[in-house]
Amino acid sequence: MTDYAINIFYDDEDGDYIAVVPDLKGCSAFGGTPEEALREVLVAKQLWLDVAREHGDPHPRAALAPRERAQARRGLAAARPDQDVG
Fold first, then answer.
1. CATH number at residue 36
2. pLDDT tens profile 15-42
3. Nearest to 37 by CA among 66, 79, 86, 83
4. Is 86 domain-assigned?
5. Which has the minimum average pLDDT: 22-26, 30-34, 57-61, 74-78?
6. How far is CA 11 from the centre of its chain?
7. Which residues, in sequence order, are CB contacts of 3 under 8 Å at separation 6+?
8. 77: closest CA among 4, 27, 17, 15?
9. Range of the domain at 28
């Protein structure tokens, strides 16, 4: 399976974390913590891919190379608003 990038950010308006898989149109989830949002979006990602497979649609290529994905993962801790990252 392709390793798609996942972006997680805090939404001030809702007070939740939002997780998005940019390469899979409309694939997102939310949670009270970054970890919960990640768990939820992994479920959403699998469902997205299952439905695409059932309809005979190809899976999109991942836009980020493995090195960029690793850099994005390391930046996750910096996304928490309750931590001083400066």
1. 3.30.160.250
2. 999 999 999 999 999 999 999 999 999 9
3. 79
4. no
5. 74-78
6. 14
7. 62, 66, 69
8. 17
9. 7-76
Give the pLDDT score at 69. Answer: 55
Which residues, at least 6 apart from 24, have a Cβ–Cβ distance to it below 8 Å? 4, 45, 48, 49, 60
This prediction has a pTM of 0.71
Q: For the chain, report the end-to-end CA distance as a whole number of angstroms.
A: 36
Burial 12-46 (b: 16+ CB within 10 A, else e): eeeebbbbbbebbeebbbbbeebeebbebbeebbe
76 band by pLDDT with thresholds 50, 70 and 90: low
